[in-house]
Sequence to fold (321 residues):
Amino acid sequence: MQKEDVIFRPDGDTIAKASHALQTGKLVAFPTETVYGLGANALDDKAVSGIFAAKGRPAFNPLIVHVPNLEAAQEYAHFNEAALKLARAFWPGALTLVVKRKADCPLSLLVSAGLDTVALRVPNHRLAQELLETSGLPLAAPSANRSGSISPTRAEHVQNSLGDNVDMILDGGACKVGLESTVIDATEDSCGFLRPGGIAKETIEKICGPLRVAGTDQNAPKSPGMLLSHYAPSLPVRLNATGANEGEAFLAFGKGYDKADLNLSLYGDTEEAAANLFAMMHALDRPEFSGLAIAPIPNEGLGLAINDRLTRASAGRNEEG
Ligand code: TXA
Ligand code: MG
Fold:
């Protein structure tokens, strides 16, 4: 079966076609610097609900809305001093700010999943920016994968995971950062750390001071993305492994392993490892292996976000995502 025709190499025509698709309520997957997003018009409840259906995602999980710049973000939400500082320091980039919706905010209430806040991000990717500009729409976009599976860092990952559930996939090659954005609660003067991601916690704290740990209550998550078992491959995952057991694939980090199927970063660079993480997990998630053994990764720099995703990948399966 030929399904290549949902993947489009981007040119002027493709962007115009994708913008039109979004304006008419369709779903378009597009690359960002972090991972591919499954985009829909964030002003349109029906289009946004299509995202939940396509991903098989629980409806209480709120979505990130992508906007072209800080000014656009301020049309929808209140930015306090801390939020402004962070936006100025890291946008466009792999930082998502949870801020209070304005009273007349026209964004679909579904993107906020019943909360009075909204998660906003300005992506640092030429194609994403062109799509935002040409469509003139704020775009709700979670990672473009079935709920609970590994996030996509290439167009083919999106197609393999979502199949016919997506109308168009814009191909921008491999994502540079390779991990979702860091999510910060900037609704109060002191900011909260909701999800580790593509910008290291230490880097953010240089701008806004120490971060509160927020959203870790599993029963009432302030950021439902904090639920366990979120980024799971089909194979069982074993962490802090020094090598493969019989039948397992081994994903190494750094030197000192004589037999590795793949290496996240031979020289132990956590940024390189983040960029490789999901693509390598996709590549090794194959039925000929009985499991996926992964070497220890230090909790420094992007290691914190990598270990967060790996802990979730190794946790018991549930229906979240
Ligand atoms: O890098 C990324 O962030 C990617 C790309 C496509 O931009 N998007 C992404 O979206 O990962 P998603 O929907 O998979 O993750 C959204 C995260 C979840 O952890 C969610 O719980 C949290 O943001 N979130 C969204 N809205 C929120 C809100 N109003 N309050 C608290 N957390 C929120
Ligand atoms: Mg996701």
Q: What stands out?
A: The chain has a mean pLDDT of 90.
